[in-house]
Structure formats: C-alpha cells, structure tokens
Amino acid sequence: MVNLLDFDRDALTAYCERLGEKPFRAVQLFRWIHQRGAADFEQMTDLARSLRERLPQQAHIAAPPVPSEQGSADGTTKWLFDVGGGDAVESVFIPEAERGTLCVSSQAGCAVNCRFCSTGHQGFSRNLSTAEIVGQLWFAEHHLRRTLALPAGERAIDNVVMMGMGEPLQNYGALVPALRTMLDDHAYGLSRRRVTVSTSGVVPMIDRLREDCPVALAVSLHAPDDALRDRLVPLNKKYPLDELLDACVRYLDAAPRDFITFEYCMLDGVNDDEAQARALLRLVGEHGPAGRVPCKFNLIPFNPFPASGLKRSGAARVQAFARALIDGDGAGGVVTTVRKTRGDDIDAACGQLAGEVQDRTQAARRMTRAPIAIRPAAPAENRR
Ligand code: SAH
Ligand code: SF4
Description:
There is one protein chain. It is built from eleven helices and 14 strands. Helix 7 packs parallel to helix 9. It is globular, with a radius of gyration of 21 Å. 31% of the residues lie in helices and 17% in strands. Bound molecules: S-adenosyl-L-homocysteine (SAH) and iron/sulfur cluster. Iron/sulfur cluster (SF4) binds next to helix 4.
C-alpha cells in the first residue's frame, strides 16, 4: 500500500503513469486529496470508475492518527500525531488577525540537541516521511475548515513554518516533496514567502535548498560568537558561524524574500547582554555583499521547560537588546521583532513541543513530563 500523501505532483504523475493513466488524472487526484481533503476514492466522481475501483487495492490517503487536540486560551491549537512505534509529534495552529500559521514537525525528536530546546532534550527517534509531514497540513487544514465552518474556497492556513519538532534540513529527502506540495497551485498553493524553513544551520543543505526549492529561510543563531554557539547549538562545531553566514548570503540569490530571519532565543544571563547585541551587529557586518547580511532579527523569549536549567530573559533586558540591534552601530540598525509567546499554557510555544519520542540515540537525557491532558479546542470566535 502506498500513501498518496507521500507524493508531490511529479511523483503522483509518475505513479499514475505506472498505472497506465494520463498525467491529467494525477492533477485531478492531487486536487481531490489536497484541495478537497478527500480520503475516499469513491468521492472522486470525476475519475474513471475503473481507476476508482483499482486505487483502493494499492493506495490510501492517510495522515497519522491524532490521539489528542488541545486548545489554548489564546486560540492556539495543538495536535499530537501518533506516528507509530511509540513516537508522536506535534503541530500547532496559531491564528492571527491577518493570517493562520501552522507550525509543522519534521522529525520525531531531534539529533541536534540544542541546550535550550525541549525537543532536543528528548533525543532522536527517526525522520518523518513526506506523508507524515504533509499529513500534518492536510489534517489541520481540512479539520479547521470543518470545525470553523469556513465558507467554500476560504482556507484556514496560509502560512507554514517548519519550526515544530526536528531539524528539517536533516530530513531533506522527505522535506522537499512536502514543501513542493505546500507550494503547488493544485494543492495548497502557498506563497514561497509564506513557507519558512527554520534551521539550526546545516550549511550544505541550505545550499541544496536554494537549488531545489527556495522558500523563506530562518536561521537559529542564538549567539554572536562560536564559543557560545558551540555550547548552545552543538551543530555549530561542524558548521561554524562564518560558514553559516556565507551560506545565508548565497541563499539570498534565490530566496523569495530579500532577507534572512535570524532567530535568537533570549536566555537570561547567557546571550542577552547588550554587548552581545553589538557583537551580533559586527558579525552580520562581516558578511554579505553590501557590508552586511540582509537580515531581520526575531528575538524569542526562552520558553522554559523542566530540566532545562535555564531562565527566560526579563522583558526589560529583551527590550534593551532589541533596541541595541535596532539603533545599530555606524552601519545602521537591523529590523528586530520580539516574538509574542503563543500557546504556552498548553506547552505549544517555541521549543516546548515534545510529543513522545523513543530516544534511539540514547545520547540525550530523557525528560520527565506530565502526560498530555486532552482539552477541547478553542471556540471558533477565538480564531481570528
Ligand atoms: N530545528 C529547527 C526548527 C525547529 S525549532 C531550528 O532549530 O531552527 C524552532 C525555533 O524555536 C528555533 O529558532 C529554536 O531555536 C527555537 N526554540 C527552541 N527551543 C526553544 C525554547 N525553549 N524557547 C524558545 N525558543 C526555542
Ligand atoms: Fe533540534 Fe531545533 Fe530543537 Fe535545536 S532548536 S534541538 S535544531 S529542534
């Protein structure tokens, strides 16, 4: 049995060809699956009867089962997807006035093991398949359309960020078909500017993404120098800051946006000093064509979780740090925003997604946490 969620349009076309079907059949099928949310071939009334009868014998359309949904007081919704073998991953829907964002997971756990990240603390089990990545969007989009009773043609999700569990660029092979499906006009039709891959800095894969499927890029920086970044993001030892920033500059040649977003998790007394903000300006000033990497900073107040041993920077320190970046140095400032924490009452904020991960690396400290309580989703009026 193949899961048709594993296929981008080209792969579905190839599959249909193997069945002796014309390419336009693949487009029809693709639209039924992704635009209409169909899982039942019998529904697909414009497909030839012979194909409708043949497909169920060898193919199915299925997202991972969803054992729980939690709604936050602020309208954020978190789903747990059971991906089998004792692993579960999470996705988060974040409604805002002008857009709906889905935060998608790419791996069960993560092998990068960042010091401040709940997913990292759980260790790594396995890569998700394309079907498991796209399945999060497929489920969430069509589930929200139904529960929010959206008018026909209106979509719930117009922004996807690969910022859930896992390092997307360490699951490149499954990621790219998933991204292509998100962008495809016969599927979700999302704008390249509204699909963001967030990475801790897998340099060779940043270069490949530029070639294969350039979407918006966010890079998790977290430190202005290698000594500190080595400690916070262990991958930095392999791909140090100079190489990472050069890759960012190369990426901009093909990127749909003319800047890179640098994410910076604000950790009390660790990386939140104003002198470190000035060092960041120097760092981005040493790279890039016009004397600086074209970039924006997004400061994320650290979301604590048990076992991290770290504290969130106070609001005044975050503001002072942001101010130092905005005011800048001789070369001017950098646009800087402070990310609003959403869904932290249901452990759905950045870095709090833990799911359930069988740590097959045995490298990371296991974390103990309370079982996930099941609560009803937020009412529709909280959505926008
Ligand atoms: N692996 C990718 C994407 C997932 S993490 C990456 O690291 O970029 C998404 C963002 O959440 C990253 O910027 C990450 O650094 C940040 N993050 C991780 N743990 C966090 C925490 N406890 N509090 C706030 N942000 C956190
Ligand atoms: Fe992995 Fe990103 Fe968490 Fe680091 S911050 S451990 S790369 S998910």
